[in-house]
């Protein structure tokens, strides 16, 4: 792909410098993905002119809004970029030109050519990852700009730098109450016997969803979650695998003397897994651990809102092996205040738990094997997810030295649940 090399060289240098200094990866020890912190902007290019103009794209003519319409947004979409055309670099370039946000999507989504890409970043490669993350072979790149931005100027700069870009289109983004829009898109989630709901859900809507899932309203176990920043809304298959496992072990042990009484939710996020255990049996207590101070805060709020005996803590620093998680935890340590984000106390950091559930990612799970083993009593039960089927062998290998009967117990699509029993 031909480029204006001087501009792209500056962009690469800027991105690499920003990646080294300001780019961190937040796993929040949650499987639903990574949160990527924004790259610090070094505006080496002049700011876009904020003068009204009309833009003639290859597909449509969109009138520029006036500068006074501060809430108006327009999007530019480049369709059909190949991976070797570096769509990641185009995204970063558009951000430097003042885009509010950018996105790369699969052009073939919904067709038989659609590619499923699941990827965990290697540790120690954040600088490279910031610029060269793997993407689909056939991509769309979209960017949102304030409608007062001179898109004609933007496109002149882009076309001068990327000489063989495919066609693009410009659209006016409908002005709406986006908070309400997102809330309406989140329906109650029914995972028998659990019903995960948000504060804005009406009882009538919840009852409707329960009936659609053939669950008696009286039998449902309700867990209320905030629509906040912590991971764990129950939508991901691995969360569902873990909820099923929790339900099974508590139901199975309910008549036994050594039944589950204390549960560790490692990588708790919203705390949904620990709260689920407490909701099934009000004699059960749970402890949540996370590396994100916001997740700890939200998790404790959720526990209070659901009236369950669960407390969330920051992970011990020595328990964090990979560089990205360690960086995030150090940031959390520097910002914690009072008991909002306490570190796991010594008397809670030992082999006292009857069950431990960890819905994280395969890479961190491997390094956490001895740590999770050290939290469980002899005979304690372990449930792990966030693991793709192709990663199951390395998880089994990592946990067999500490656990008996380590197996893939359940699957959901490409995701698996690994279970085991702490050795005597």
Automatic annotation (TrEMBL):
Keywords: Methyltransferase, Signal, Transferase. One of its GO terms (molecular function) is protein-lysine N-methyltransferase activity. It comes from the Eukaryota. One of its GO terms (biological process) is methylation. The keyword Methyltransferase applies. Residues 1-22 form the signal peptide. Belongs to the methyltransferase superfamily. ETFBKMT family. InterPro entries: Ribosomal_L11_MeTrfase_PrmA, SAM-dependent_MTases_sf. Gene3D superfamilies: Vaccinia Virus protein VP39. This is ETFB lysine methyltransferase. Pfam families: PrmA.
